Amino acid sequence: MDNWIEFSGPDHTLQLFGVQLVGFSAQTGKKLLFTVVLLALAWLLARILRALTTLIDRRYERAAFWWRQAIRVLLVILLVIGLLSIWFDQPGRLATAMGLFSAGLAFALQRVVTALAGYVVILRGDTFNVGDRITMGGVRGDHHGNGPAAGSPGSRSGDVGSFAPVHRAARAHQQ
C-alpha cells in the first residue's frame, strides 16, 4: 500500500486504497478548482463594489440601495454563466439538466402557479361582479370591485377593488 491515493486509467480516475471512485477524475478536479477560483473572484469583486457603494450611501441612500441591487443581480448572472460554462461542455447535458430542473420546479411550485392563474382569471375574466358574496379558502366576504389594485381577503370595506370579509358577529346573525 505504497500509493494509497493515485490517478489511473485513460481518464485519470482517482483511486483511494486501490478502489476506483466513480466521477472523480482529473477533469472533475480541474472543474472544481475553476469553480472555487470563480467563486473567490466573484466574492472579491462583490466586496470591492459594495465598498464603493458605501461612498454613495452617505449622500444618496436610495441610489446606493439600487446600486447594491444591480451589483447582486449582475454577479448572480455572471456566476450562473461562469458555472454553466465550466460544468457543461456539451449542450445536450445542459439541455437535460435544464429540463430536469424545470420539471422539478414546476412540480414544486404547482400550487403557486395555479394560484397565479386563478388570480389572472378572476381579474380578467369578470368572474365576480361587484356586490357578490363569495367564499375563498373558507373566508366568506363581499366583493367590492375588480382591478389591478384589488385587495386581499381581510381588506377593509370601501377599498378600491377589495374583498371585505363578513365578520363573525355578522355570520352568526345570518345563520
Description of the molecule:
The termini are far apart. A hairpin with a 4-residue loop joins strand 1 and strand 2 (13-16). Mean pLDDT is 75; it is low at 148-162 and 169-173. This protein has two domains: 27-106; 111-174, no CATH class. The chain is α+β, with helices and mostly antiparallel strands and 175 residues long. It is built from five helices and six strands. 3% of the residues are buried.
Radius of gyration: 28 Å
SS-based structural class?
Answer: alpha+beta
Query: Total domains, how many?
Result: 2
Please state the overall shape, judged from the principal axes of the Cα atoms.
flat
Number of helices: 5
- What value does the average pLDDT take? 75
- Report on the biggest sheet: 3 strands, antiparallel
What fraction of the residues are assigned to beta strands by DSSP? Answer: 15-25%
Summarize the structure.
57% of the residues lie in helices and 15% in strands.
Main features:
175 residues; alpha+beta; three-stranded antiparallel sheet; 5 helices; 57% helix; flat; disordered C terminus
